[in-house]
Amino acid sequence: MDLSTMIPSGLNDFIELIIAFFMVVTATSVTVFIQHTITSFIGTVEWNMSEIIKMILPLVGVVVGGLITFFIQQSVIRKQQKWDREKIEIDNFKKGETKKLETYNRILEVDAIYIIHIHDHHTGKGTLKIKNFNQYVRPLLFEIFHLLDEEVANSLNNIEEICERQRVMEDDYPDDYEKLSDNYINIISEIKKQFRQYRESNKRLKNPGETPEF
């Protein structure tokens, strides 16, 4: 039951007026008390510049010290974050290089086992066996396509473009097979070059004074 409905509206207004009056009196009393306290305190203390400075300096020292500590901590945190990012990038690069070289090694292996490319020593021309290339070499290259060296990726893309055009157009250009051969030779040559550079790099680490030969 709502008790406010049982009180006459006139009486209800009177009660609200009494409450408001007491709130004003209380607020005024508190204000007067605070003013009196401050006045009494000021009257008992001789306020001069030297005493004010003595009070302020410790606070300033705390604030300045806190700011210096804050900026030093932020600098250390930023440097640590930078080192962490660089370490992650280096670790990822090393993992990528390891995976790339392992795959390159498998490509050289299948190139030696299966007949991927035939070179005619009499004519000097080469022939890429597309079926064997697509079965053994192409999957390995696309497995690490994001890690491929630029020369290898370009040669692979050239082979893909020629094969795709031949499938769509159902026609061969006169120099298609020569280009297929050349691009495959470029892939194998670049892979072997990468291994030479890798061995030379390891050699330099063991013998820092030697000049590399590529």
Written description of the protein model:
Helix 4 (150-169) runs antiparallel to helix 5 (176-206). Mean pLDDT is 79; it is low at 1-9 and 24-35. The chain is elongated. The chain is mainly α. The longest helix is centred in the middle third of the chain and has 65 residues, at 49-113. A hairpin with a 6-residue loop joins strand 1 and strand 2. The chain has five helices and two strands, in the order ααββααα.
Short description:
The chain is built from five helices and two strands; from the N terminus they run ααββααα. It has 214 residues and is mainly alpha-helical.
Major sheet summary line = 2 strands, antiparallel
Large-scale geometry: elongated
As laid out across the biggest beta sheet, the strand order is: 1-2
Poorly predicted parts: 1-9, 24-35
Helicity, as a percent range: over 70%
Roughly how many Å is the radius of gyration? Answer: 43 Å
The succession of helices and strands, N to C, reads HHEEHHH
